[in-house]
Amino acid sequence: MNLAKFPRRGYVKTPTPIEYLPNFSKALGNKVNVYIKRDDLLPGCAGGNKTRKLDFSIADALAKGADTIITCGAVQSNHCRLTLSWAVHEGLDCHLVLEERVKDSYKPEASGNNFLFHLLGVKSITVVPGGSPMLEEMEKVAAKLREQGKKPYIIPGGASNSIGALGYVSCAQETMQQLFDMGLKIDHIIVPSGSAGTHAGMVAGMVGNNVDIPVSGVDVSRPRDVQEGIVRKLAQETLDFIGANVKLPDQAVTCFDAYYQPGYSLPNDGMVEAVKLLARTEAILLDPVYSGKAMSGMIDLIRKGHFPQGANVLFLHTGGSPALYAYLPTFRD
Ligand SMILES: *Cc1c(COP(=O)(O)O)cnc(C)c1O
What we know:
This protein has eleven helices and ten strands. It has helices at residues 22-27, 50-63, 78-90, 112-119, 134-147, 162-182, 197-208, 224-242, 269-282, 291-303, 328-331, and strands at 18-20, 33-38, 68-74, 93-100, 124-129, 152-155, 188-193, 215-219, 254-256, 312-317. The protein has a six-stranded mixed β-sheet. A four-stranded parallel β-sheet has the order 5-4-3-6, sandwiched between helices. Helix 8 links the parallel strand 8 and strand 9 (254-256). It is globular. The N and C termini lie far apart (48 Å).
């Protein structure tokens, strides 16, 4: 599919590596060969998946004459850190609206991404209770800034609209070219599924290019039926936005929802095991909220024999390691 017609800033200069994980595969009994796509190494302060989406979102903001970016996320949001980071890079102001999804979880002095919000010079942080209508809350901030003569542009949570999802359509196309160059056949791709732009973009990219590699999401916040509906809707909107003239088959979107309990951003044993195992076998850092839970899902699926013996499974590493530093007691042995 032709993405060249969409403006973008060029934040992604080279393909992120696809690496084989020999020690990690061995630790799981060599039932499958685990590969990882290192989107944790994308450019932008401390890396991660939002850079691919913001490449398109911020290009749209600049095309519309914005001088200020407003976005939202949870209190340790990687998306907020990366939006702020690219705003700094572009010389734009950035204001954040943080949703306290877990009551009393906002700590002004917290480490991790929160520390980086301040270090990167955020213009303002507005904290709102969990369940608040985030678009309306961002509109309130925008209205105030307009009164001051600013030209704000709102990026939705996770940059998960059809503009941002183009970043992961592009990732799907990049991945297929890499697999061709490497002569590697991948049987299954696993991605974290949150605000859904990553999962939806990957699915749209695969389906739109007639690639039959299944892409499964591991939910980090919602039950399966709800999440699958959100991903399907965004994937179809993205295909339509590209002008692909493709009807997404229902079975193109599947999620696993057994790995995020007790709830979004709250630690569980599988996540802790996954983070430690990848760190101690391959020295690659996951995060507690997204990639750690998604990897714990993949580990469980491998152990249960969900993938055929000898299959090649690719894990999309979406980044997030700065959040580890907000969870120190969780990882002490
Ligand atoms: C935002 C995020 C995700 C989830 O991606 P979505 O597009 O929101 O589904 C996964 N991992 C990390 C580290 C993230 O910051």
